[in-house]
Structure formats: structure tokens, C-alpha cells
Write the C-alpha cells for this entry.
Amino acid sequence: MKKVLVFISLAMMLYVSSCYTKDDKETTKNGEGQTVQPAPGVSKQDKIQRGEYLVNVIGCGDCHAPKKMTEKGPAPDMDRYLSGFNSTQPMPKFDTKVMQRDQVAMFNPELTAAAGPWGVSFAANLTPDETGIGNWTLDNFKRALKQGKYKGLENSRDLLPPMPWTNFKNLKDDDVESIFLYLKSLKPVSNRVPDAIPPAGTKS
């Protein structure tokens, strides 16, 4: 009887342990190369699903997804989903007057490029290709999303409108990680987005 109880106890310990270690290989790394593991009992897939939910609710595809024109208007091009401004298209032409103070802002038809007093900005490629966030760490992504730093690099310029990073700075770190893991799970799309164009008369 004693041996049976010992066996049952060991079996329970192994089961509980497996719940906390089954995702050891499903990890990401921060900027220091340290392993970042999901919280106990939360799998990487759970976080990816949470990230997909957040991306859809926040509306990242409104600006970062190229569009196809349909009978109901523009819809995301799922073959190039979240790959940013389509660099194979001609550079959009904007009335330079909108780049002056107290004038309206303008978007291209796909909503992936915008012009205003800040110049012309282009929605970034968020897919895990090297032309997107393929080489980014979680720290890079967090710095871009919550501090508004270009490519998530310290001492880089601020992200330009219409990127609403001042709202995203309130996201919890767990949610930022979930979004990052989801984006890293997408199909990579090779698309090198053009550099922002400063207003006339200013330097980049």
C-alpha cells in the first residue's frame, strides 16, 4: 500500500511539473538575450491568440495592412497582411500644402501612407521578415510601442503620426509580449517600406 501511495504522489508531481514546463521551448528573448517565458499555466499559443485578439481590437490592420478594393470598399489584402505600405506601388503624390501648419492631413487610398505638417509617413512592415520586425527583440518592440521610438532603438527619432503610440504606452507588458509573439507567428512578407519624407525645407 505504501508503495502505491508513493507511486501516486510521484505521478502527481510529474503531472503538475509538466504543466509548468511544457512550453519551455516556446520562448522568446529580450534585448539582453535572456529567455522570456510565458507565465506558469499560460502557453505560448495562448499568448499568440491573445495577441491576435489585441491586434484586431486595436485596429493595427487599419494602417499596416495593404488593401484590396471590394464592393464594400477597401479590405485588408491578406496575402500581404500587416506588411505596411506596399513598396512596389508608385510613391503617392500629396499636395505639399497639407505639410504646412494649420492644413488638413491626407491619406493614400490604402491608408498606409499619410501626409501632414510632419511630412509623409509610411506604415511599417510588422511581419517577421528581415524587412519588417524579423530581427527585432521583445525590448525593441516594447520600446517602439510604449515609448514611440523608431525601430525600437534607443535615441532614435520619435514615431510619426498617425501612429498612436501615446495610447499604446498604457498597454501592460504581458499584452505587448502577446502582440509581439502573434506578429512573429505571421507569414513573413518581404517589403522594405520607404523612409519618411520630411516637410519641404527641413532635413531628415
About this structure: Confidence is low (pLDDT under 50) at residues 2-8, 13-26.
